[in-house]
Backbone:
């Protein structure tokens, strides 16, 4: 295996994002809303142990953790930062802290925490659901997939997460029908806001995971060209990035109708076969397993498990971008047409200036 092979994973188990459904849950999630639970810390450690078995014990990485070999980049959310740190502790000795890089503010990280309010997505929300906000869209989805429920998104999300952690929940959430309604509602909602699922939208996907996909492709190319430093790249992010990334690669069917679980994610490895670069793609589906599933042959443009680097890099151009802010409409991109017109205008002005100067010079010479 060659160096600079990226890994992308979701953070570990967390507390509800908006509220708690009971006093017991409030005490259980003592770190606060949206923060890692104790289980989430364990899951991060277990993911690190998987990487230890795959890369450290095999000698691909130095057991003492060389910063020159390892690069961790995280979303600025605390749950992602803490997960990345636990992954590092699972990979190396417990007393070694891996450097984790991030952006100083959440608004700046458009790769691992993209939260832009794009006009296109607002229009799509209005067109499909007749909703002005995503909260209203959630209500429309809930009314279809969980018609017996009237609670808002915050409460239902709390019940869903607290049930996963084994906390007491309302009786309806313990029934097969109630659980199915919860799962279906959040699946439809998350796939909608990510531009995946039944209503795929490449432009939305570009704003969610397009820059990360572009970066993965670029890093693999740099690795093969020997223009890289690190042998191990890790990106700690959210399900709203992992899910559209899976759609970009054509791998949604492998998820079998499920959302990305905690502490699961992709492994991209670059291999050298007789002087030709090949890419292998794996996914860890279980947050407690040290096993990964190879999906290389299912990636767009990869006919089988011998997927060349060129095939992989050209797999999904319609889903990637080097600037999601341009796609979102929040920033103007470079326009060759405008550049050509401005260049033509300046050249015309310069030519006219030269002609006028020449005529003036000739006129002056005749006067002498």
Residues:
């Amino acid at each position: 295996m060659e160096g600079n092979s990226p890994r992308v994973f979701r953070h570990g188990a967390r507390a509800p994002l908006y509220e708690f459904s009971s006093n017991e849950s409030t005490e259980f999630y003592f770190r606060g809303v949206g923060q890692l639970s104790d289980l989430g810390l364990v899951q991060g450690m277990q993911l690190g142990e998987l990487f230890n078995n795959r890369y450290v014990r095999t000698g691909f990485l130095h057991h003492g953790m060389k910063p020159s070999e390892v690069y961790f980049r995280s979303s600025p959310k605390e749950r992602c930062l803490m997960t990345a740190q636990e992954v590092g502790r699972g990979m190396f000795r417990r007393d070694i802290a891996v450097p984790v890089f991030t952006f100083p503010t959440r608004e700046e990280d458009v790769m691992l925490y993209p939260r832009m309010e794009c006009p296109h997505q607002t229009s799509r929300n209005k067109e499909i659901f007749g909703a002005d906000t995503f909260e209203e869209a959630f209500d429309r989805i809930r009314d279809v997939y969980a018609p017996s429920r009237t609670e808002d998104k915050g409460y239902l999300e709390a019940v869903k997460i607290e049930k996963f952690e084994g906390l007491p929940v309302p009786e309806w959430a313990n029934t097969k029908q109630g659980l199915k309604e919860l799962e279906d509602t959040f699946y439809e909602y998350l796939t909608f806001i990510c531009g995946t699922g039944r209503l795929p939208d490449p432009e939305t996907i570009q704003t969610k995971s397009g820059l990360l996909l572009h970066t993965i492709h670029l890093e693999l190319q740099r690795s093969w060209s020997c223009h890289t430093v690190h042998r191990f790249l890790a990106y700690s992010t959210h399900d709203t990035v992992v899910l559209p990334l899976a759609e970009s690669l054509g791998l949604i069917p492998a998820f079998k109708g499920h959302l990305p679980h905690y502490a699961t994610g992709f492994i991209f490895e670059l291999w050298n076969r007789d002087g030709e670069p090949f890419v292998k793609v794996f996914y860890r589906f279980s947050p407690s397993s040290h096993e990964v599933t190879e999906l290389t042959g299912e990636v767009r443009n990869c006919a089988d498990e011998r997927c060349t680097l060129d095939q992989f890099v050209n797999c999904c151009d319609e889903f990637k971008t080097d600037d999601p802010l341009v796609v979102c409409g929040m920033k103007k991109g470079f326009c060759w047409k405008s550049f050509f017109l401005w260049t033509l205008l300046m050249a015309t002005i310069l030519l006219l200036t030269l002609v006028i100067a020449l005529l003036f010079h000739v006129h002056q010479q005749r006067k002498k």
Observations:
- The chain has twelve helices and eight strands.
- The mean pLDDT is 92.
- The radius of gyration is 25 Å.
